[in-house]
Specification:
39 helices, single chain, 13% strand, eight-stranded mixed beta sheet, disordered N terminus, elongated
Amino acid sequence: MAERWDLDPPTAEEEEIFERDRQEASCKKECFNWLSHDNRGASYISYNQFSHLPATSFEFGADGFAGACNNGGELLHFSAPSKEHGLIFARGAFSSSLYACISRAQMEYGGSATFGLRIARDQVPYDKESSQGSSFRLGDMIERGCFNYRWPLNEYSLFLNNAPEKGDDPKVEANPDIEAGTCTRFSYFKNGVCYQVIRLEAQGGPGVDQEETVYHLPPWDGQVVLEIGGSVYFRLLKDITTTNNENDSNNHIKDESSTKCLRIMDMDLNIGLEARVYQLNADGGDVTALDLKRFPDRDMCGISQSSSLGFASSESTIAGGASSIPSAADRGFNSEAPVYRATAKLHPASRENGGPRRSETFIAAIRLIQSADITAPEEDLEIPFSEEMHDDVWIEPARTVFEQESQATGVMWETILQWRDLHTDSMSEFTEISLMARCLEKILQVDLVPGIYGIEDKAFAVISNPFMHPNVSLRSLFWKVRFLVKIHDFLSELKKNGNVRASPRPSNNQDKNRGGQQGEVDSIHDIPDFFSEFDGLDRSQMLNIATSQCNRIQGAIECILSFLVELLLPSKPIAQEEYFTPLRPRCPTDQSEFYYIAMTIWYIVKSFRKIKWKPLSRLCNFEQGDMINSCIPPDNHNFGAIDNRKITLLKWYHYGSLLSLADRGILPSYWRSSIMKKKVYRLSNAATVACTGSTASSSHYSVDDEIVDRLSFLAHELGMEEFDATAETVTSASIQRVRGREFTKYLNPGVLLPSGRGYSFQETSGPWEIHALCHNSRVHMLTLESDSEYAKATRGCRGSETREEEVAVYKNKVYMFLNSEVTLIPCWERSPTKMRSGWLQSEAAAVHGSTLLDIHNKIPVISRVSPRNSPQTCPIVNPAGGQYRGPATSFTTGAPDGFDKSSLSTQFREIMKELKGEGVRPIDWVSFRPPRQYYPDNFINSLEDTPHLFRPPATDNVFIPATLNPLAKPPGSVGFSRHDLQNALQEAEWSSSIVDILVSQQISSSRRRERARGTNTKLPDMRYYRRGAETTYGRKALINTFKKEDELIRALFDSLVDQSVQHRILHIHKLPDELIRMLAFVVHPEAVLCLSNHVLHTPRFSFQKGPTWTASITVGSWILTDDAKRIPPRHNGVIANEPIGFPQELKDAAASHEDSALMLSQTRVSFFVSSIVLSTNAFGDFSRCSVISEANINKVDDKDAKAKQQDEEVEVAEISNEIWQVFVHQPQTARCLVFLHVLGMLCTKLCQQYHDTIKEFESIAPSTNVFLAEGKEWNQDKLSLSQFQLILWCLGCLYKFQNSLKTSIANILDAKTELLGQIHEQAANRSQSLQGLCQKYIANFESDVVELTQVNEYLESNIAAAMHFKDAVGFPEPITFFPRDSSANSDDKLSGTLALRDSRVGLTQNATSLEQNNAIQALTYLTIGYLPLGLITAIFAIPKEQNVLFQGMGRGWFIGAILILSGVTYLVVAWLNPIADFLKLPSALENGRRDDRPNLWKALGDIRQHLHSPDRSLC
């Protein structure tokens, strides 16, 4: 064992200083004052500077007991060792899937997912009379950190819970937030009990003296309401590791709580959770147990037992009495959920609790119990008080510096960091220290659990991912043990070598210096010189703590070694076993992991040469037969698709380790035989050939190559080969492969493609750059070469920079994978299956920590003097001696713009390497980096988990367009509930359906062929929810169908995370007002703008980018509907596109088509709109799609139509599922293709709807021959006018349809232009096969759009033909029966009809006038004939006295006169026109008259001209 330091006694001055510090520390220990921000000491590590990184949970524990809290410090998980079951687990109300665990870990407020002590968040202001409510409410988290990298601490701002003032507008917050202090939550384990401390502390404002009264004090007689418990689910490790269904559970919960003790028992497993809550008295000397009262009506925790376990879990049975409060059931919660509240009165201000700066402290004791551990409810647990917790946590400076076994690791790491930071000016140094320190504590405090019971020696197994997917991974165990060995070596070197930055040394010398025996004591003169920069207190503290940590690590390794020895030995039948090994890995997925057992044992033995490990004595009789009967796979075992290089290396290391152990005398002599040596030699050659062969191949670097490189680098560490960069060795081959790898330029499909023309089987993983350990390989490679080897290998490739500068560049790439607790996210894979295997690599931080330690030990670098150095802290040793690290590399998580100038050449050459080849830039792998919260808020928030977000004041901040204000009214003070959701679906007649695409999707390449053959393929990658869903078209084999009403409600009520949903498609076929309200506030808030267009019946395409990517479109169509089922417009402004009914006055014209549906009195042609809205997160791998189509509402009772509709919905989801999976590495393209695919489906429906409507109009329209009717036919046919009016009515309707269709097509083309532009932006980084698939999906959409365009052209051709006939009959323009605006529609139709009627009347009147003219002409001729006779008769009738006639004119003269006058009259009538022309003036003659007719005036003019002519004068 490593020993502590014996230092010279302190001087009198130092004793005085130390005594004063001890008195101050004693005051801080009282009443949990050490939790105050200013009193936490050097043991506290703040993570605030990493708060912008991806959030993560904080895991903590001790002695096999462990817990995990979310980013806000609330308890999520609890585990405890069990002799019978190995490990037992309890978790909050959420799914056990990796998907749900990650999302819950990243939340600050866990809601129903947590069951620890917390401040109630939904409290009304405190009312003194009723003693209801709370005086406080929590604000935002302002601090997150831990003590000694082990115990989490979270600090929140604390506000007074004020009531709004009377008379104020309830929508306006009357009182601003009044800060009263802080709320600190601290958690730690002791004796198997998890203690959670909540401390409320009133603090002064900025600039206020501490002795003055604080600026806002809580009421002296106030109270605070605490909560604990909730829905808790219990699991066993063996159930988790053996069941395929993560959500399978048969829990039967019973609530056995009392007023003093919360106890929740699983009656099947006989395990449970027990908790008590205490309040610290004012003097801090004792605690008072608080009364617990059941609170069944708590929205955030009161949920049904089966809700979070998925849909495969059985219904829980909870006993303990039924609740009489109906609101819980109405809101959809299980009233039996054991949520309890404790109301605590505040103590009056006193000197003990701080006076004006007073505090209140509450302690919860939580533990997992089995039946034998149950205690009486009234029996109190032994609660540690402030001083005891202070000492247990090792708050600095609570302990004397000379005390042994100090665990104040935060002080130790701070001292080490302080020296390193003084000479590097590097934030990355703090990052490295934090990563190594946190990784060490996580392994020793959380991952180590008892693995074997009943043996003399303790045997600890190392659990991987204890709260996500717990299992005993032997692979992770090896890499974590390797890290423990290296950190032990690092800490032990603090006293063995005066220079922490030692020069490179051979690995065999390194081995000889490890493992010092107990009893070797060095003097004060052996203290490293650089520690003289600090006072003796810091030096001695650091060295003593380092010594205790070496002992702690060595003890843990011995326990792990005992467990490995037990695994290597052949297992005995259970009946013969005298001890239990519940954590033995029974059937790991990868059988090659068993090879790590011998590797780990040998690595420990080789690293600690001087230590005699007691557990190894059990291997002295390990023979060949024992190997056959052990868990080690036989040599001829078929490992399936696992990389053959990896298997070859593991076999070599396995048998080489056995041979080396035999050489040390640990194994029998058989393992040293020549047969074994030949076997190891052959495996060595096979490994060399496999690794060098893959280096020589032209294949691109992939993720699978990383583990091969990592194993290859172990060859010299395990002593299997001596590293020689010039020889063909396993290590040198990997170095060449890592150094020569190219950046990823092309992305492949996420699924294997079927073989055939243009396709080939290929890698389906994402780019190798998104895996942290791939970058670590490059850093580790640089630690293996000497300076000369490095210079030779990089000759001509590097500038004047050193190897240290290249290390800095690649370390910064690894740091991009840091999370908020300064450990590593193993990968950024977005594929569900790849993400699962990548995120569960729990050894990532340990592997990189080991690399950092190798860099520290093997790479000497020259320091740069920091400007922060003062004369008092300048280095003692000459920096030119190469004794200090450098150069500085600022901690960055993005582009490496913070590096020192000396590393710019490395960065420049990296950029040139990226640009090399084929003119295609490598992919931007940094864009894969997850945000601070990996899952979108809308996937976590739900009515079940976060009900406070769906009630005021949160709902008051939701944006609702003015159009939707009358329909989407904000909820009342109670907020939305499950009852509201149920009412909305009932009002919609349960016509909605949901198709969920799960994160566990696994698409087979032969899926379509199997479906065509009718094969019953079980693919549980989608869920279909619809009331009364029918199983047709093979859906039962392709999808899980849920057809009950409560299942549909549950799908919308629960969070998508808990349902393991990655993509959701919601189909809505009836949209009542209540459902609009639920969509806008709860189900899909991103769809509000699209809902506004839908309500206004306005076709429109809209798109927006940002944290949420949203694309929406609204299109319209005209459909025949029953007037009783027609949906009236919801907005008063909707006056266009009113329904069209058949004119009854034109019924006679269509009498031959009376069976047409259009002629029914209740039938209308109505305008319907369909909308699609797709919203995703910024990266595009989580989506929600809502498809609103009310066109088929009149067919809800048609079973055939309903079945067809279901098949269409499933078909759309299947294609979308395939697109998401194929483009899983490029979801930005996938979301555009999915939107186009759904839009193409809608185009097909529009084509069918318009086709049916047009066909109906064509069936009732008469023939266009009516346009060719002649005048007599128009007069004789009584129906001609009605037929012509019917034709023009149909023509006007077709005009209306065409305009609507043109508008929809224009919006569809806008969507096509925008989305195809985004798709083409990423075309350069798509492989040929992926680009081919992209073009296929685009071509399918193009064909759907072309089909819709053809319908529009068909409409145009029909309308054009009718217009030609109309023009042919010569009607005046315009006779238009389709107006440009709907307001003049009826007026234009009326004017056109009147014009047609007037034309028809005019024709009739013209015919009548013609007949009358003929009659008048005949009468005129008759009058002319009688005119001479009448004139002569009148003359001869004149009396004789007038002397007009001569005497004797008798009858002869009378007759002769008549004849003469008649002849003259008749001649004048016959020559009337020529005579008139002869007498008319020339100017009065009409145009067109003949010029040869004689004219008197013209003749006179000619005579006059002739008389005055010159020729006449000459004569």
